[in-house]
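re: ur question from earlier - yeah i can do the single chain one, its not a big deal. heres the input i used so u can compare w yours
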Amino acid sequence: VQFVESGGGLVQPGGSLRLSCVVSGFTISGNTMTWWRQAPGEGREFVAYVTSSGGRTRYADSVQGRFVISRDDGANAAYLQMNNLKPEDTAVYYCNAPAYNVWGQGTQVTVSS
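and the output i got, formated as tokens:
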């Protein structure tokens, strides 16, 4: 099982990024997919989830209204569209399926002017 995150980078406050997570080793259909983040010196923090078939989504209060989680079961991938980024969004972002206790390398997002 492997999660490969990409799409991070350096962006100015107010900017946008779209993160991708390509999964191998299992089929994501039927699985809830989640995004998490970890800022320097902090623990891993829940960001968002999308249930199987995209029926339901939920977001952390800190990103509600700015981030959108989605999935493409045909591509075996999940995505996180991040808009109106703030410096406090700076972190390494990870995707995960709760059924699997495996973490990828993550992708670094830095929001700074």
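The chain has no helices and ten strands. not sure if urs matches, ping me
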